[in-house]
UniProtKB/TrEMBL annotation:
Its EC number is 2.8.2.-. Disulfide bonds join C293-C303. GO terms for cellular component: Golgi membrane. It is found in: Golgi apparatus membrane. Keywords: Disulfide bond, Glycoprotein, Golgi apparatus, Membrane, Signal-anchor, Transferase, Transmembrane, Transmembrane helix. The gene is Hs3st5. The active site is at K99 (for sulfotransferase activity). Transmembrane segments: none annotated. It is a single-pass type II membrane protein. It catalyses: alpha-D-glucosaminyl-[heparan sulfate](n) + 3'-phosphoadenylyl sulfate = 3-sulfo-alpha-D-glucosaminyl-[heparan sulfate](n) + adenosine 3',5'-bisphosphate + H(+). This is Sulfotransferase. Its main location: Golgi. Belongs to the sulfotransferase 1 family. The keyword Oxidoreductase does not apply.
Length: 345
């Protein structure tokens, strides 16, 4: 009996031991595969000198750790010089559209080892006071990066602000411009929801969406309402086309970025002439959030803030129908100009 118990105990210990060794081996293999996941980054010649097209793994670790500290202003001049870090003007800008998914796009692109994001919206080109401070002021707002990395900024107000295309053109006429769009009526409601939440936070009352979107005198769509105007994408794009050829724009499908982000990001990598480095591993669906979240490595992952992905208020279906009918011809024109068609009603 005692012998039987001893045998059983030994067997149990053996199983536990194998499990522990198995887990250890798995972890070692996992870390190894992570190294393989983003070890080297060949960057296209457009964005860096040839021959300098590989970012060693140490540099990536640096990017995620120390560089983060530097961005917060914790770098000494000596460290910056030692690591050859620079604050570069953006080579690509997410110019809009507000509530299109601009934050998700920026954060997801930042998963790419050759991309460094400017965390804050800088509002350099749309804000006269900031613009008057000059381009050096703008550059100093940029994060530190290696010379072969590219900096990306996002300020969605750029898309709709009259003066911005000319100002960006003056800085860099060959800059790459990213526009992320959503079905225009949904975007307008999302825009309204954000403003509504701001009012509620201040204990203020606000109008219903229907009241703002429809002119009570004419019963037609109220084109003076900013959330409606912003969704007339073609009108804004036409202003940009006076300065930049359409080839310099890439349109991102914001609705697809929510449900299936990887293919959209791969199109952006291609547009930016970056080697494909963002993989399915970097994106995982979080059922609690109801959105894809970001996985940088085995220890570091994050979801977007709670302010992204708000619940929209119910809107009268007749108002939705009216808005969709209103946007329809503008959408057709937008498809025609951009060469990208969406299944918008
Ligand atoms: P809603 O709040 O209407 O759902 P922006 O960053 O331009 O303000 O856009 C916000 C929108 O990004 C959100 O709109 C949300 O739907 C969308 N989005 C796209 N991908 C997301 C993600 N992974 N996590 C959270 N929100 C995401």
């Amino acid at each position: 009996m005692l012998f039987k118990q001893q045998v059983l105990l030994r067997q149990k210990l053996l199983v536990l031991g194998s499990l522990a060794i198995g887990s250890l081996l798995y972890l070692v293999a996992r870390v190894g595969s992570l190294d393989r996941l983003q070890p080297l980054c060949p960057v296209d010649g457009r964005f860096g000198p040839r021959g300098q097209d590989e970012i060693p793994l140490r540099a990536l670790q640096f990017k995620r750790g120390l560089l983060h500290e530097f961005r917060k202003g914790n770098a000494t001049k000596e460290q910056i010089r030692l690591h050859n870090l620079v604050q570069q003007l953006p080579k690509a800008i997410i110019i809009g559209v507000r509530k299109g998914g601009t934050r998700a796009l920026l954060e997801m692109l930042n998963l790419h080892p050759a991309v460094v994001k400017a965390s804050q919206e800088i509002h350099f080109f749309d804000n006269d006071e900031n613009y008057a401070k000059g381009i050096e002021w703008y550059r100093k707002k940029m994060p530190f990066s290696y010379p072969h990395q590219i900096t990306i900024e996002k300020s969605p107000a750029y898309f709709i602000t009259e003066e911005v295309p000319e100002r960006i053109y003056k800085m860099n006429s060959s800059i790459k411009l990213l526009i992320i769009v959503r079905e225009p009526t949904t975007r307008a409601i999302s825009d309204y929801t954000q403003v509504l939440e701001g009012k509620e936070r201040k204990n203020k009352t606000y109008y219903k969406f229907e009241k703002l979107a429809i002119d009570p005198n004419t019963c037609e769509v109220n084109t003076k309402y900013k959330a409606v105007r912003t969704s007339i994408y073609t009108k804004h794009l036409e202003r940009w086309l006076k300065y930049f050829p359409i080839e310099q724009f890439h349109i991102v499908d914001g609705d697809r970025l929510i449900t299936e982000p990887l293919p959209e990001l791969q199109l952006v990598e291609k547009f930016l002439n970056l080697p494909p480095r963002i993989s399915q591993y970097n994106l995982y669906f979080n059922a609690t959030r109801g959105f894809y979240c970001l996985r940088f490595n085995i220890v570091f992952n994050k979801c977007l803030a709670g302010s992204k992905g708000r619940i929209h208020p119910e809107v009268d279906t007749s108002v939705i129908t009216k808005l969709r009918k209103f946007f329809h011809p503008f959408n057709q024109k937008f498809y025609q100009i951009t060469g990208r068609t969406f299944n918008w009603p």
